[in-house]
């Protein structure tokens, strides 16, 4: 049960002063709380023996009042430090998770779905936080506070009465242990079901347009209802066991009360204890209700925290696929990029998606990459982004192997516009400033002109302050592409990667953007993948990929003379455009 504390020892070692102070303050508060019942018993005895005076009453009231004030102050201190520590734990774990997410490559996100990761970053972290806050409270109260009450009951009243009254305790320990094992198993299942539901909700929100287009609203609602019912049932199974804790505690405490009152009454009649001591004893028995209940809560919290920590640690233990070299080589700029017999296959696949790629690109050149769908165009760009490990052959920048350069260095040179544009749920200004945080409105309008977006911004309700919605839902496909282009342009990168980034714009807009690119990107390297030959015909180097291999390479004119795949595709597209115009 206490394995979770061992797993979190790194945190307790770091914040040992805070937790030591909190625990000491909690123990002091517990000691203070033990004194009032003794005062009550003493007052009752003095009433019984008619020795209670007004001065004595005032003395007891003043002591009682002083204890209340002192208890309040100390309780505030332990509460602030203990639960403040729990908040720090949640913050640290959330930061560790987020840092880990940002380091991960696509392989990680293929294994863990977004909904599952969100569940771990919310529900599971909350359960871990409970362990480092409420868990410590219940640990101290179910052990030290309980022990102090038992010692006071036995030492100051009667050990015999105390031990007989606490006969139910061993039974409670056995029952609580059984409950804990069941809760751990059921809570793991409940959290997994919650993750599945999260994934389903995310997919439904992202695909809401498709769901409506195919009139699948009712089917989607029914599927969601089935999943929520599953989550409900699994949490209900946890709640059923959880609900057994309190009544079990009450039954056991009730038995203790019965024993205490019955046997304690006989001791009073025999003058072995006083009436005041019996009253104090019963107050202490009442005070034992919380420590006994805390035992159940402790097991509950520990098992939940342990299950959640295992889930989070499983994610955090996933190794980084692409690592920085121990001693990275420093170079000032990417003067040339060389591919020499580069081959690559994705994890979980047996065939190569790139095979013996040879390419030499000098600084300032534009490289056009074309080919059939699935030919390996995007895969080639991903080698520069270093999203996946394990390429074979030699890939170098300025004569230095890309594996000897730090990730921060290579990625700082690159701006990337993927096939599926990712826009954040912020304003257009904030989305473009993602490429350059301190970009002025003047600079933003300049790159929007390059991306041919100025006419669009004029008709949007709030101009640059227009919110694009979840993943840019309020913008058309072409508008999203051009905002993504503007975001890349404002970075003014050494290497610009455009992965079919003009597919959603018309031919006239494409030609305008390409013309701007030719003027603005002089002296800097650009890679463009496209299905339309018009998007890359200006490139100094054009390569045609087929099944991961380069089958044609050269300038537009050279490839047209070869009369191969490129020439046939170009001529076909020209005919299609003429037919559309006519």
Automatic annotation (TrEMBL):
Protein name listed in UniProt: ATP-binding cassette domain-containing protein
Organism: Aquibacillus halophilus
Any one Gene Ontology cellular component term annotated for this protein: plasma membrane
TM annotation in the entry: 21-40, 60-88, 134-155, 251-269, 281-301
Boundaries of every ABC transporter domain copy: 337-572
Keyword ATP-binding: yes
Pfam families: ABC_membrane, ABC_tran
Domain ABC transmembrane type-1: 21-304
UniProt-listed InterPro entries: AAA+_ATPase (IPR003593), ABC1_TM_dom (IPR011527), ABC1_TM_sf (IPR036640), ABC_transporter-like_ATP-bd (IPR003439), ABC_transporter-like_CS (IPR017871), P-loop_NTPase (IPR027417), Type_1_exporter (IPR039421)
Topology term for the membrane: Multi-pass membrane protein
Keywords in alphabetical order: ATP-binding, Cell membrane, Membrane, Nucleotide-binding, Transmembrane, Transmembrane helix, Transport
Database matches in SMART domains: AAA
């Amino acid at each position: 049960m206490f394995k979770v504390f061992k797993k979190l020892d790194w945190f307790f070692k770091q914040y040992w002063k805070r937790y030591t102070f909190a625990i000491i303050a909690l123990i002091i508060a517990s000691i203070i709380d033990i004194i009032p019942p003794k005062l009550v018993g003493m007052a009752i005895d003095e009433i019984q023996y008619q020795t209670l005076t007004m001065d004595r009453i005032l003395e007891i009231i003043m002591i009682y009042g002083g204890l209340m004030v002192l208890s309040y102050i100390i309780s505030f201190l332990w509460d602030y430090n203990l639960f403040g520590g729990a908040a720090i734990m949640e913050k640290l774990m959330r930061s560790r998770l987020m840092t880990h997410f940002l380091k991960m490559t696509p392989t990680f996100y293929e294994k863990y779905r977004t909904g599952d990761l969100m569940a771990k970053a919310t529900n599971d972290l909350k359960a871990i936080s409970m362990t480092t806050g409420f868990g410590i409270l219940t640990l101290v109260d179910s052990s030290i506070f309980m022990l102090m009450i038992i010692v006071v009951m036995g030492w100051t009243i009667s050990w015999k009465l105390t031990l007989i009254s606490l006969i139910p305790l061993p039974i409670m320990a056995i029952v609580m242990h059984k409950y804990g094992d069941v809760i751990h198993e059921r809570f793991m299942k409940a959290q997994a079901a919650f993750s599945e539901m999260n994934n389903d909700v995310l997919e439904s929100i992202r695909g809401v347009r498709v769901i409506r287009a195919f009139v699948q609203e009712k089917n989607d609602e029914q599927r969601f209802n089935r999943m929520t019912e599953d989550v409900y049932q699994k949490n209900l199974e946890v709640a059923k066991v959880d609900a057994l804790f309190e009544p079990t505690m009450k039954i056991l405490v009730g038995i203790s009360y019965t024993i205490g009152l019955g046997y304690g009454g006989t001791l009073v009649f025999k003058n072995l204890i006083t009436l005041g001591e019996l009253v104090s004893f019963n107050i202490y028995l009442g005070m034992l209700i919380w420590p006994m209940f805390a035992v159940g809560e402790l097991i509950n919290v520990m098992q939940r925290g342990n299950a959640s920590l295992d889930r989070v640690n499983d994610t955090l233990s996933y190794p980084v696929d692409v690592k920085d070299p121990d001693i990275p080589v420093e170079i000032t700029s990417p003067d040339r990029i060389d591919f020499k017999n580069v081959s690559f296959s994705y994890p979980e696949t047996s065939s190569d998606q790139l095979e013996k790629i040879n390419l030499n690109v000098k600084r300032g050149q534009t490289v056009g990459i074309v080919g059939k769908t699935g030919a390996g165009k995007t895969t080639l760009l991903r080698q520069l982004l270093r999203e996946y490990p394990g390429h074979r052959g030699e890939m170098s920048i300025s004569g230095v192997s890309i594996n000897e350069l730090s990730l921060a260095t290579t990625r700082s040179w690159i701006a990337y516009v993927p096939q599926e544009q990712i826009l954040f749920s912020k304003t257009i200004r904030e989305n473009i400033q993602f490429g350059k945080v301190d970009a002025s409105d003047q600079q933003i309008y300049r790159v929007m002109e390059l991306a041919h977006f100025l006419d669009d911004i004029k008709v949007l309700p709030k101009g640059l302050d227009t919110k694009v919605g979840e993943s840019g839902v309020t913008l058309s496909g072409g508008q999203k592409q051009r905002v993504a282009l503007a975001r890349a342009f404002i970075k003014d990168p050494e290497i610009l990667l455009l992965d079919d980034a003009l597919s959603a714009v018309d031919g006239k807009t494409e030609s305008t953007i390409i013309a701007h690119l030719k003027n603005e990107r002089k002296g800097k390297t650009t890679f463009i993948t496209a299905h339309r030959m018009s998007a890359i015909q200006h490139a100094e180097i054009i390569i045609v990929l087929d099944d991961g291999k380069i089958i044609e390479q050269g300038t537009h004119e050279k490839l047209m003379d070869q009369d191969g795949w490129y020439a046939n595709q170009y001529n076909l597209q020209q005919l299609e455009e003429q037919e559309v115009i006519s």
